[in-house]
Specification:
By secondary structure, the chain is mainly alpha-helical. Helix content is about 50%, strand content about 5%. The protein has 15 helices and five strands.
């Protein structure tokens, strides 16, 4: 019996044991709900939902070593979106390599871009537009408004190709399709503009600043108002349209990677565009789920707003509509 015991013990000691790998730190396991929202902008249930939603796209089985869990990939990307911090800082926070952070940002960004049409939508049905009109009317009694338009700039590094067309009026490189492009030109080539041009949305006005043409469905301020009615119209227009500037400020406060306070997006121009779309998707998800705003939101202006010259082109066929509104309403 003793000999048999010694034999079995030696045989057991010689059996090759699988190498035990330490599990990656998962912030979902050790952060409370408040800290998760503060650091990643999304709640725990929202992050878990993204993990389920993008599991097939982000899960990578490998025989060489353990792949990053989907949850850690998403949280590393969310941390970048929320802070705009350098990849090395993000890597240290999540105990992963700098190259892994880069892949996380790239892959999660692409996942969000793939679903953008589900979350960035201009309503076209009458019921939804009526709700929007009521919301705008409550701001300053401006009737029939279904939206407000404006542009904002996102600072990027100097592109290696066509560098000059990305330099904006404040002399830094930015994404605004690209930085040197006028708001009116960007608007005329947008999908939302097409919805009004082809009468998919046939009832309702958009509000824009003087950089846009005045159209039957796009109302701008009166330059150099001379009557009390025109001044009243301009005041209501400014207060109502201001919601779009505040929206840019809220978006950039929530996801600092696209704000100048976090520095410059150190990616290609195409990747920067994808990041902008990705954070817009996340921002709308936060609104739908009533996520709290960052604590300093009231002191956070849109640093990317660059006032441009007044529109001086041929498209001003909405002047009669605007004048009729001024005389009949204000």
């Amino acid at each position: 019996m003793a000999a048999a015991y010694v034999y079995m013990r030696r045989r057991h000691q010689n059996i090759r044991r699988n190498r035990l790998l330490r599990d990656y730190d998962n912030p979902l396991d050790y952060l409370d709900d408040f800290d998760i929202i503060r650091r990643y902008r999304l709640s725990r249930p929202m992050i878990i939902d993204l993990c389920r939603r993008f599991d097939n796209d982000l899960h990578r089985p490998t025989m060489r070593s353990r792949a990053l869990p989907v949850s850690l990939q998403i949280m590393a990307a969310l941390r970048f979106f929320a802070t705009g911090s350098f990849q090395l800082v993000n890597a240290d926070v999540h105990n992963i390599s700098r190259s892994s952070v880069s892949r996380c940002v790239r892959d999660v960004t692409q996942c969000l871009v793939n679903v953008c049409n589900q979350h960035i939508i201009m309503p076209t049905d009458a019921a939804s537009l009526e709700i929007i009109k009521r919301g705008f009317y409550e701001i300053s009694d401006f009737p029939n408004v279904v939206g407000a338009v404006d542009g904002t700039h996102v600072r990027i590094k100097s592109p290696p190709v066509d560098e000059h067309i990305f330099v904006n009026r404040k002399n830094f490189h930015s994404i605004n399709w690209p930085g040197a492009t006028h708001d009116a030109f960007i608007w005329s080539n947008s999908t939302v503009c097409e919805l009004f041009e082809n009468r998919t949305i046939s009832d309702g006005w958009l509000l824009g600043d003087s950089g846009y043409p005045v159209r039957p469905w796009l109302l701008t301020p009166v330059l150099n108002p001379t009557t009390r009615k025109q001044q009243s119209y301009n005041g209501a227009h400014m207060r109502t349209r201001n919601v779009v500037e505040r929206s840019f400020g809220v978006l950039k406060a929530r996801f600092r990677c696209i704000d100048t306070s976090a520095g410059t997006l150190l990616y290609s121009a195409l990747m920067c565009c994808r990041i902008v779309v990705a954070v817009a998707v996340l921002h709308n998800l936060c609104i739908d789920n009533r996520m709290p705003l960052p604590p300093d939101i009231n002191d956070f202006p849109d640093h990317g707003h660059i006032a441009g010259p007044a529109y001086n082109g041929p498209l001003n066929d909405g002047a009669i509509v605007r004048e009729r509104l001024i005389n009949g309403r204000f």
